[in-house]
Amino acid sequence: MKRIYLKKTFLLFVLFICSLSLYAQNGQVSGQVLDENRQPLPGVTISVQGTTIGTSTNSDGVYTLTGVPLGTQTLSFNFIGYEELQRSVNVTANTQLDVELVPSAESLSEVVVVGYGTQRKSDLTGSVSSVTPKDFNKGVVATPDQLLQGKVPGLTITRSGGDPTAGATIQLRGPSSLTASTAPFYVIDGVPGANIDLVSPDDIVSMDVMKDASSTAIYGSRAANGVIFVTTKRGKAGKPVLSYSGYAATENVSNRVNVLSADEYTQFLVDNGLSVSESEAGAKTDWQDAITRTGVSHNHNVSLTGGSEGTRYNASVNYFKNEGIVKRSEIERIVARLGVDQNAFDDRLRLSLNVSNSVISSNHVDYGIFNGAARFVPVSPIMTDDPFYAQYGGYFQVPGRTGYMNPVAMLNQRDEDRSRNILLATVKAELDILEDLTWTNIGSYQRQNSDKNYYMHTTDFDSRALGLGYAERENLKDIDQILESFLNYNKTINEHSFDAMVGYSYQKTVDNDGVRLMTTGFLSDDLGANNPDAATPPVGYRHFGDYPWKLESLLISFYGRIGYNYNGKYMINATVRRDGSSKFGANNRWATFPSVSAAWRISEEAFLQNQDVLSDLKLRAGYGVSGNQNIDPYKSITIFGQQGGQFMYNGEWLNSYGVNQNPNPDLKWETTSMLNIGLDFAFLNGRLSGTVEYYNKETEDLLYEYSVPTPPYQHDRLLANGATMTNKGVEVALSALAIEQEDFTWNTSVNFAHNQNRVGNLSSNIGNLSVSERYEGSIGLEGWTGQTVAIVLPGQPVGTFYTAKYIGYDEEARKTIYQNAGGELVTADQITARDDYQVMGYALPKFTYGWNNSFSYKQFDLGFFFRGVYGNKIFNATRADLSRLPQAGITNISKDAVEDGIFETPTIASSRFLEDGSFLRLENATLGYTFDVSNWRFFNSARIYVTGQNLFTITDYTGVDPEVNLNGLAPGIDDRNYYPKTRSFLLGINVNF
Asked: Residue 324: how many CA atoms within 13 Å on its side-chain side?
């Protein structure tokens, strides 16, 4: 028995030695796969030729092959959209091999996200622009929409000024509404309407912008302004991968208002026989410098991914803090995400759970400080020891002068802090009912809690607060609940491919659920707005000054899509959506939004097969209808509210109540129909590729608030449909691999977009409600009461400037000369406001453009991006306000006004203050270095980089920055309320473990 045991032990020992010997004859190959921009490329398939050994790269482009036979082996690298790469390598026990893949003409095979599914880019029949992290804007990014600025032709993202707490205004293919919001609709990981602030820029895999109605109609009533799909990182099978990315940045004012310094101001007064009050002089103050600083920002992102084929996970935490260049303004944000994917029943069932939470805290400043910093005379002090000014907290003020306040006092005596907590929980289940039939269910719950505290000190110069203090508290809750259930069917029979989708959607939204109060009468500033109950308001003051409306709405939808593809050559898609919304009138709750699109892959035809120049050519055309329901609920019903007066009843004064809103049971969606024709092409095996698009976008049944007679109406305003608007345009995008050598590559891309907006009629579909024109853009300068600078006029675009025509200045008479509507030369006192105004320019640009470049040399990479606009006007109300030369003794003036030498205070809006708003900006430039980590323990990759943002701007505009707000009915106005644009420099690092 013992001998048998010894024999078994000896055999096991021999087998063990043999296995060690066999193992010793095998080695390991690991490394990283990068794309043409030296960015990690996930999902690349790597195999060893002649063997069954293979693997794929993880989310950071890292791979490991084990059990590879020693000696010379050939590795094959394959990835959709890139040329296959074969590389011979001498395999040892631990071999490092990093490679770069080159894009191919087959990049059209990459998958992009579309409504309720995905499609290969080559199969798209609509207009879709896809942007991935390698193309994102670099630098200090407060919100994810900044990543796309200037990258997508036709998508205009404007973030005027450098306020870290401010959002951006977004328009796609021009304005398409007079009243409702024109912001595009976000879909994040399949959740429609999810809040973009829930996503950290570091977690985004791609952003796909659906631009035409044939692509967006599947989202019906919410899609008239385009749809942006955001796809975030998910867990992948493989060993855990820990990643860190972070940067630190400094920001400074890139440009200032060009006003006189204390010495220049004093000299101007002397030269022109003017004087300043003795009580306001005696100091040298740079007011703009007094309210600004060098801002410090930093961002940190940690993520962990991994799992098995059956269970995958991802988790990340992002921390971002951005100090504003204006003192006391800043934003701090923490975003945490957790996702788990589980496969079951032989992978026929796929379950996903995702939870995201964003906590945002911000401190805001009163924008009045900017006008104050420009106008306050530079010879006045910031503070004074004079006992008289103790009532103002020691800050120097000028009693009795309207709209003239010490900006430093305003900055320090007004506290406004806000916080938002946004939670999104999503559950997704995909079941393969049949081989070609998948049933998907998505349920999501999104909740946002918002808090606002605002307090004006008892020493604040404002009449509401002086001696009393003034507080506002607000706490609101928004809830969005969504259920999506849809079936996808895909079938391929020989050269014929079919796909179909049907679905149901339920969305319940509750907004503004909370309380708001305003009060005054504080004895101390110590608690600020934190304890409003400590206030003792004066007699007659209404303690609760305002109540928010709790807004509830319900949207129920049925939708479907069907598509056919013949041999990758001929494609057609059709969609339809039926939406019912509680926001609209009882007679128009439901609407249908159809679309159809087709494409011809010309390059697949026989007559283009025997040539080497043209790699791909596809012609697309589509037509669809989508809607806009971006208005508050209850707009179609009668609403009662408090009126201005009171009445005596039973010995008491009571507030009067009456109708504040007329009913309109016929109120319905704004409807946008769009024709889109596109041509996609690629030459020289994909080294040069691009897209040309033409679109015609027509919007009707625009919502507009009309003046109505009382009686028969009970209120003098009525929201109704009826107006029309068109946008026509051309978009071009080109990309080229300009240079490709062993150690050096240069990729470049340009985009161009031209849009022509026109307002149609302004009349309502309700009889006798017509409007011939509407004046917009009120300018609140001193002495400019009731003046506007813009007009909404049929046949003209939104943003049409309508002012007096400036001719010049008569130095002898010291009079400004204008030309009235009849062609006569007149002075300001002879101009009849509006009757003598003329169309003098347009706020919307003739075209926008962007130019991106990326270079790589060995382990170095360099990228820079220019963007700009051309052909737009800006009404510079800031310059008008600082052009009061005769009033220089009581307010500062600009150096431009001194050079103009016009000694007449401007009292009317004129083309004198219309300026060319065209600009070219070096948006960002980045220099990076990727380390060789083959001998670094624990590191899979490491990169360090420096970035400069807003490095310079070429423009003729004399204001602080030519990038002004282009939203609303009066875009393009620089009306003193600016936050200076920033210039930033940052140092960052990306590492994977």
From this structure: 21
Pairing type for strands 639-649 and 54-56 reads unpaired
pLDDT at residue 16, as a whole number: 38
Residue 790: which of 754, 844, 716 has the closest Cα? 844
Alpha-carbon distance of 644 to 305, in angstroms, equals 60
Which candidate, 821, 785, 949, places its Cα nearest to that of 149?
A: 949
- Closest listed residue to residue 217, CA positions, set 697, 694, 537: 697
Which residues have a Cβ under 8 Å from the Cβ of 277 and sit 6 or more positions away? Answer: 889, 890
The pLDDT value given to residue 178? 86
> How many Å apart are CA 124 and CA 108, to the nearest integer?
9
Q: Which two tokens stand for residue 398?
A: 């000028």
- Least Cα distance to 484 among 459, 504, 498, 461 occurs for 504
- pLDDT at residue 542, as a whole number: 58
Burial 133-171 (b: 16+ CB within 10 A, else e): bbbbbbbbbbbbbbbbbbbbbbbbbbbbbbbbbbebbbb
CA atoms within a 13 Å half-sphere pointing along the CA-CB vector of 171: 23
d(CA 676, CA 214): 8
Cβ atoms of 820 and 991 within 8 Å: the answer is no
pLDDT for the residue numbered 180:
77
Distance CA 953, CA 962 (A): 9
Cα 527 from chain centre = 36
Rounded-to-integer distance, Cα 417 and Cα 364, Å? 6
Give the C-alpha separation, 806 to 876, whole Å: 14
The CA angle 368-372-374, to the nearest 5 degrees, is 125
**567 token code pair:** 């041999």
pLDDT of residue 17: 37
Residue 969 and residue 776 in contact, taking contact as beta carbons nearer than 8 Å: yes
What does the alpha-carbon distance between residue 988 and residue 942 come to, in Å, rounded to a whole number? 11
- Residue 215: its H or E element: helix 213-216
Low-confidence stretches of the chain (pLDDT beneath 70): 1-25, 36-37, 52, 59, 80-82, 103-110, 540-548, 644-647
Identify the three-state secondary structure at position 651.
Answer: coil
Q: Which is nearest to 890 in space by CA: 111, 326, 281? A: 281
- Order of strands, edge to edge, in the sheet holding 873-876? 914-916, 873-876, 973-974
Among all chains, which residue has been given the structure tokens 């110590």? 526
CA atoms within 13 A on the CB side of 29: 27
- Quick one: 803 exposed, middle or buried, by C-beta within 10 A (0-12, 13-18, 19+)? buried
Per-residue CA distances from 938 to 60, 95, 247 (Å): 14, 15, 21
pLDDT for res 827: 93
DSSP assignment of 131-156? E-GGGSPPS--SSGGGGGTTTSTTEE
Helix, strand and coil in the chain, % to nearest 5: 15, 50, 35
Structure tokens at 686: 């994909």
Residue 492 makes CB contacts below 8 A (sequence gap 6+) with: 498
Rounded to the nearest 10 degrees, how much is the dihedral formed by the CA atoms of 753, 759, 765, 770? Answer: 160
Name the pairing type of β-strands 639-649 and 652-661.
Answer: antiparallel
CB-based contact 502:528 (threshold 8 Å): no
pLDDT of residue 385: 93
Q: Is the peptide bond before 711 cis (omega within 30 degrees of 0)?
A: yes
Beta strand 919-930 with 941-955 is antiparallel
Q: What is the structure's pLDDT at 108?
A: 46
- What is the per-residue pLDDT for 988? 94
Locate 952 and state its tokens.
């310079």
What pLDDT score does 41 carry? 81
- Name residues whose C-beta falls within 8 Å of residue 887's C-beta, 6 or more positions apart in sequence: 905
Tokens of 274: 């003017």
